[in-house]
Structures are given as structure tokens and as C-alpha cells.
Amino acid sequence: MLKKLSYALIGLSLMPMAIFANPIQNNGIYLVDNITVHDNPIGVAMSRSYMGDVTGIKKTSKEIIAYLDFNHTHYMGDFTIKINGEVVPYYMHEDDTENNLQTIYFNMNNLDDEILVGMFVEPMGINVEFGVELLQDTLVYHMAIVEDENTYKEVNPMPVIGGLLLASAVIGSMALKQGGNDEKIS
User: Fold this and answer.
1) What domains appear along the chain, each with residue ranges and CATH number?
2) Prediction pTM value
3) Most C-beta atoms within 10 A of its C-beta, which of 28, 31, 86, 144?
């Protein structure tokens, strides 16, 4: 009986791992915490004060897109984004001039890419550059997307997860019903 119970528990515990073992491989929207990186503490503090601490990630079959949020954008301009040392194009996702907020997005290869953000800071009259490191251990699946040629459809993940949990319960139940193979523990 103990062996069957062990199999059932192992089956139940492995199902969530199948979902979350390498979640960025699945199409969807993810959220990941980030830190800003600079060679001095003042640069870290300033960059952190201007950029949101959560990065949105959109994974499709063709690309990985990162979304960075900035505040106090009336003080900054002329963004540049470098991925692994190469300047890449970025796009404006949201531009709320009334509240001085902007969200920009750009393509990346994977979550390990080196991201550098450059901008002109008007009050200081200089260009600044800082790194953005994605803290992969904080990666959270937010929403599924289903690709349909040029459009994306958001999908509620709960029925999928519920179905997987039901399957793991059935597998565990089947393991409990099999008899006669228990090992004796002394």
C-alpha cells in the first residue's frame, strides 16, 4: 500500500513540473522581475527609479518580445536598446504623456540576453546607459496565447491546468488500485 501511495504522490507532484519545468518554451505572456545594473550605486538607484521592476515577456512561435515600463518619461528621450552588444529596434507599446509613462518593447533571443538601455536624461543633459537583468527564478506564467496567422487569442489557462491535475489524479488512482506488488518495509 505504501508503494502505491508513493507512486500516486510522485505522479501528482510531477504534473506541475511538466507545466513549469521550462515555461518560456510555451507560447504565452510571462512576467519576470528585473534588476538594473550600473557600475555605481547612484546609477543603479536612478535607473531603478525610472524603470518598472517587472518585465513582460511575450513568447510566440516566431519570437520572444520584452516589454519595459518607464515613468517620468518627460525627463528622458532618445532611447536605445542593445541586445548582446547590438542595437536593436524598439517600438512604443504605450505612451501616456499625461502621466509620463511609456512602455517599449523589443525582440530578444532568450532570457539570458544582455540587455542595455540607453537614454538621454534632459535635466542632466547627458546620455546614460544601464543594464537590465531578468531574474529568471521569478518568471511567472501569466496568460496563454494561441497563434492564428496574424492574430493572437488570449486563452484562460485554468481549464488546461485543471485537465492536467485531473489526469494526474487518475494516474495516481490507477496506481493505488494495482495490487500485490507492495514492498515490505521492516
Assistant:
1) 23-155 (2.60.40.1850)
2) 0.68
3) 28
